[in-house]
Structures are given as structure tokens and as C-alpha cells.
């Protein structure tokens, strides 16, 4: 009984694999950034610094909205990234911390 079940599942999987359409390579995916093909379907991916909005579009992540982007002083959100900046009289040390003179 169990063996028959496994055989059926395997058969279905092989069938699904052989009939799968790779939407990504056909350019019918409509993804704004990246595309990952899956058996029987696909999903869209976004580059670093972006997140999916809906199923196909990518929007910038506002890193500053979460914990000030880990910046010690100011955080400036940019498209696809963000920058830390310091108060007057301080200089950026590394990418997030500020040191005085
Ligand atoms: Ca950003």
C-alpha cells in the first residue's frame, strides 16, 4: 500500500517535471528584477536592497525605518541602499559609527 503511494507520487512528480514550463527563460514572467522557476510555476525575486511589492514588482527597502538602519547618528535612505551620516563635528568611522574629533 505504502509502496504504491510512493510510486504514484514519483510518477506525478516526473509528470510535473516533464511538463514544466520555464517562464523565466521564456521571458513571460513579467518580473521586474529576477525570476526563479519552480515545478509548475515560478516566482519573482528582487535585488539586494529591494523587496517584492505584489508578485512581480520590486520596491526599495527603507532600511532607516528599522532601528535607524543601525546608524549611530543619521540614516539616509536611498534607492536600493542607504547611507549613514554624522552630526556636525563628527566623522563617519566605518559605515555606521561616528567619532568626534
Ligand atoms: Ca533603501
From TrEMBL:
Which residues does the UniProt record annotate as the domain EGF-like? 20-59, 60-99
| The keyword GTP-binding belongs to this UniProt entry's keyword annotation | no
Write the gene name.
HMCN1
Signal peptide stretch = 1-16
PROSITE patterns (alphabetical): ASX_HYDROXYL (PS00010), EGF_2 (PS01186), EGF_3 (PS50026), EGF_CA (PS01187)
Name of the protein: HMCN1 protein
Q: Which GO terms describe its molecular function?
A: calcium ion binding
Say if the entry is tagged with keyword Transferase: no
Entry's Gene3D superfamilies?
Laminin
**UniProt entry keywords in alphabetical sequence:** Disulfide bond, EGF-like domain, Glycoprotein, Repeat, Signal
Amino acid at each position: 500500500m505504502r509502496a504504491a503511494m510512493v510510486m504514484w507520487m514519483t510518477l506525478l512528480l516526473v509528470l510535473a517535471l516533464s511538463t514544466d514550463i520555464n517562464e523565466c527563460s521564456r521571458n513571460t514572467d513579467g518580473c521586474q528584477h529576477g525570476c526563479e522557476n519552480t515545478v509548475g510555476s515560478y516566482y519573482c525575486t528582487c535585488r539586494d536592497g529591494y523587496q517584492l511589492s505584489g508578485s512581480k514588482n520590486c520596491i526599495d527597502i527603507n532600511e532607516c525605518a528599522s532601528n535607524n538602519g543601525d546608524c549611530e547618528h543619521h540614516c539616509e535612505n536611498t534607492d536600493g541602499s542607504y547611507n549613514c551620516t554624522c552630526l556636525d563635528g563628527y566623522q563617519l568611522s566605518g559605515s555606521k559609527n561616528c567619532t568626534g574629533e
